[in-house]
């Protein structure tokens, strides 16, 4: 474990150096991502300004939701999305086999040697928007609430990384898994909006089998003191436990898939 | 010598969904739970001693790569026992990986955009190589593989031959006890192939590194591996020294007799005519005890013999003959 921790800076360092070979592309990528998300958030802001609120959420509250959604996603995805989205190719071209012959856990190698600093644009935009939203909302901050807020971001980021891992791991068995990412991003889009605007079956789905309601809506509702459908008073604890719980599930799923890995032939 | 790899009745069966033909069949495949079993490795047993260099040979789909993947801990055997350096490779994958080196001819382990040295440096940390040993090994490998001119260049700018030399060096930096090479000379030009073969033979001889090599280039086997394991359809066909294989198959030398003009049919008891081009007659000498002198004596004078060419069978010929006659020779395996 200690050896793995000592190794992490070297794994991250080599990937950062790879990105630095193409500095201009990296900076343009950051700007493009920030502009893309910024444009989308501006359109949501315009709609809310027209109708005053969305499911009872005002623009500053929505801005907090969007910023939380983007920050938690970016933190989780920077160690998982591209790495596990590309599992199909890694398996088909045998590069995953080359990872398995190294004396290191393959998840650790994949996640950290592929740490995606291209999410810098997402994180900068999310933090900027979050600061503006929090200042506008004038929340009754206590140490407990601040701690909950930070832990909820971490839990949501863990949920993202765990789901990405689980989806990527299925490629170890089926070779293909990219279609599952399309399903993930379908629910991820919905998770940008207050859960209460959706019909009940979808709300249940986004709290259970596709738990992206925990990515932003539930923690933000807890912080803002808004009611959480279905979960009610369980929402604060559930939003903190969901990340670690899915990490445990993802670790078990990853190990099972690895044990049953058959390669892609050749 | 003690065995460091021991395979006993190793099997690998891949379970695949049954594919039904045609469009309707394709749709039915979506809902069927029928599976077919593909036996990629079928009851293979062998021992490899420390310091041996062994060629693992077989046609495409023979189960070579699957066996290598099981020995390196990538795949789990379906049945049988497999021990590498006293451990089950798949259940001790990380410990096993620390003591072996693996080179895949068709997939790079180097960081494409970075100088070769950066990949080496990362491996230093992954394998926890002490600084002194790393520096010494790097100096030795750089000199032996002539990497000095490109070690600080990004991998993407290297030729295939340079890249393969760097891959081999990277696999040896941590002094592995066993080096697995999966088709290391594939795609290389003659000069690069020669450099790689000479180096691998040297590493095996001087450093005592055990080498297991799969290849389609039989010259690799001839120049690096005294021992040959041949497989087909997942089964072991031959395990022994290359020279024993030659002896098992007989010499099957080829003899060409060139005459000043067409001497007409020539029938010899010591050689079998395989082709008659008029002035040039081609024979096969299947009996190892028959010498060229015996043939010329039987031919006698008066045919206007101009030239004689006797060719020893090359390794490709030996292997081709082996696979053609394999049902009779399957007993050659111990």
UniProtKB/TrEMBL annotation, chain A:
Kindly name one Pfam family recorded for this protein. ABC2_membrane_6
Keywords for the protein's UniProt record, in alphabetical order: Membrane, Transmembrane, Transmembrane helix
Record field: transmembrane: 25-48, 60-82, 109-135, 147-173, 204-225, 237-256
Q: Source organism's superkingdom?
A: Bacteria
Name the InterPro entries for this protein: ABC-2_transporter-like (IPR010390)
Record-given protein name: ABC-2 family transporter protein
Q: State the species of origin.
A: Devosia oryzisoli
From TrEMBL, chain B:
GO MF terms, alphabetically ordered: ATP binding; ATP hydrolysis activity
What domain of life does the native source organism fall in? Answer: Bacteria
UniProt domain ABC transporter: residue ranges:
25-258
Q: Which UniProt keywords apply?
A: ATP-binding, Nucleotide-binding, Transport
InterPro entries annotated for this entry?
AAA+_ATPase (IPR003593), ABC_transporter-like_ATP-bd (IPR003439), ABC_transporter-like_CS (IPR017871), ABC_transporter_ATP-binding (IPR050763), P-loop_NTPase (IPR027417)
Q: Which SUPFAM superfamilies match?
A: P-loop containing nucleoside triphosphate hydrolases
Q: Which Pfam families match?
A: ABC_tran
Q: Which PANTHER family match?
A: ABC TRANSPORTER ATP-BINDING PROTEIN (PTHR42711), ABC-TRANSPORT PROTEIN, ATP-BINDING COMPONENT (PTHR42711:SF1)
Q: Which family is this protein grouped under?
A: Belongs to the ABC transporter superfamily.
Q: What protein is this chain from?
A: ATP-binding cassette domain-containing protein
Instruction: Supply the source organism for this entry.
Output: Devosia oryzisoli
């Amino acid at each position: 474990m200690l050896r793995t921790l000592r190794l992490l800076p070297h794994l991250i360092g080599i990937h950062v150096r790879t990105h630095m070979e193409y500095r201009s592309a990296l900076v343009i990528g950051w700007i493009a991502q920030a502009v893309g998300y910024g444009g989308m958030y501006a359109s949501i802001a315009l709609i809310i300004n027209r109708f005053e609120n969305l499911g009872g959420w005002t623009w500053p509250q929505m801005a907090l939701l969007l910023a939380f959604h983007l920050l938690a996603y970016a933190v989780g995805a920077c160690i998982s999305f591209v790495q596990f989205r590309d599992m199909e190719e890694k398996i088909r071209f045998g590069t995953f086999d080359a990872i398995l012959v190294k004396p290191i856990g393959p998840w650790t190698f994949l996640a950290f040697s592929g740490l995606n600093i291209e999410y810098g644009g997402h994180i900068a935009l999310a933090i900027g928007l979050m600061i503006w939203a929090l200042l506008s909302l004038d929340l009754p901050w206590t140490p407990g609430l601040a701690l909950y807020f930070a832990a909820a971001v971490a839990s949501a980021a863990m949920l993202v990384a765990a789901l990405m891992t689980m989806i990527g791991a299925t490629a170890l068995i089926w070779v293909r898994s990219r279609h599952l990412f399309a399903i993930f991003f379908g629910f991820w889009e919905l998770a940008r909006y207050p859960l209460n605007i959706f019909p009940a079956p979808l709300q249940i789905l986004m709290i259970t089998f596709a738990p992206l309601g925990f990515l932003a809506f539930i923690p933000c509702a807890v912080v803002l003191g808004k009611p959480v459908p279905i979960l009610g008073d369980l929402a604060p604890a559930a939003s903190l436990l969901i990340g670690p719980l899915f990490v445990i599930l993802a670790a078990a799923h990853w190990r099972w898939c690895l044990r049953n890995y058959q390669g892609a032939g050749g | 010598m003690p065995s460091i790899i021991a395979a006993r009745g190793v099997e690998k069966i891949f379970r695949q969904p049954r594919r039904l033909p045609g469009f309707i069949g394709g749709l039915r495949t979506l809902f069927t739970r029928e599976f077919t079993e593909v036996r990629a490795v079928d009851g293979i047993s062998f021992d490899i001693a420390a310091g041996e260099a062994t060629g693992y040979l077989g046609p495409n789909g023979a189960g070579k790569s699957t066996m290598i993947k099981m020995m390196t801990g990538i795949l789990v055997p379906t049945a049988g026992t497999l021990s590498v350096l006293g451990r089950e490779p798949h259940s001790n994958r990380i410990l096993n990986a620390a003591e072996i080196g693996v080179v895949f001819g068709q997939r790079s382990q180097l960081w494409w955009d970075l100088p070769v040295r950066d990949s080496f440096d990362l491996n230093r940390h992954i394998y926890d190589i002490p600084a002194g040993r790393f520096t010494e090994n790097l100096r030795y490998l750089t000199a032996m593989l002539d990497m000095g001119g490109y070690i600080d260049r990004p991998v993407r700018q290297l030729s295939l031959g340079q890249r393969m030399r760097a891959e081999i060096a990277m696999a040896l930096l941590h002094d592995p006890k066993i080096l697995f090479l999966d088709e290391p000379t594939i795609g290389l030009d003659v000069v690069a192939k020669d450099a790689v073969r000479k180096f691998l033979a040297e590493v095996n001889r001087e450093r005592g590194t055990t080498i297991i090599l799969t290849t389609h280039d039989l010259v690799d086997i001839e120049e690096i591996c005294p021992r040959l394991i041949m497989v087909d359809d997942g089964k072991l066909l031959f395990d022994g020294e290359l020279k024993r294989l030659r002896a098992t198959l007989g010499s099957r030398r080829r003899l060409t007799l060139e005459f000043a003009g067409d001497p007409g049919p020539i029938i010899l008891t010591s050689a079998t005519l395989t082709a008659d081009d008029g002035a040039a007659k081609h024979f096969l000498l299947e009996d190892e005890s028959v010498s060229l002198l015996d043939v010329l004596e039987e031919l006698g004078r008066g045919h206007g013999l101009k030239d004689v060419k006797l060719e020893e069978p090359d390794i490709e010929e030996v292997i081709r003959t082996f696979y053609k006659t394999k049902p009779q020779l399957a007993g050659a395996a111990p």
